[in-house]
Amino acid sequence: MASDRRTLLADAALDVLAAEGIRGLTHRAVDRKAAMPPGTTSAYFRTRVALLTGLVTRLVQLDQEELQTMAEHLPPIRIAEELVDGMVLLTRQRLTGEARRRSLARYACAVESVRDPELREILVPRENAGREAVRLFLAGQGVTDVENRTHTLLTCIDGLVFDRLVSGGEVPREALEGLVAAALR
């Protein structure tokens, strides 16, 4: 099925991008990673822009699924400590295993999106269960300007994940506690 093949190729492109960076992302490299005959990737994604668009679309889909699954398996957030616990879990996920690969690819795509409005539009933060849980918690705590505070808090966490991808290690719990405390002020 064509959509299965496109998904397989987009996943292989994510692997290539995470391992080799934007310069290493070529149709041939994706063919090799996917164990497909030469020319397969270009048959499904004719241009480099089409390949990047397919990769970013798949990346966002996987991220949204991850956040939905996390939200479904965590109880509603009642106190700040529970919000910090969820953020610790999320940052650990984003720095290890499968999600680490996506984090590396996400940041490479974010840089590319500076010059490509179509990619930027796909990468714009989406509504998801995780974002909604943070928003509901902040609103329940009487925070004013919930939308901006939610955006700022999640952007700061994203920055901490980026920092730890580059420098190594985990995001310190104390840093997350500080961000939540700042959002609540």
UniProtKB/TrEMBL annotation:
Keywords noted in UniProt: DNA-binding
Secretion signal span: none
InterPro entries: Homeodomain-like_sf, HTH_TetR, Tet_transcr_reg_TetR-rel_C_sf, TetR_C_31
Residue ranges of domain HTH tetR-type in the record: 3-63
Annotated region of DNA binding: 26-45
Protein name per the record: TetR family transcriptional regulator C-terminal domain-containing protein
Source species of the chain: Streptomyces oryzae
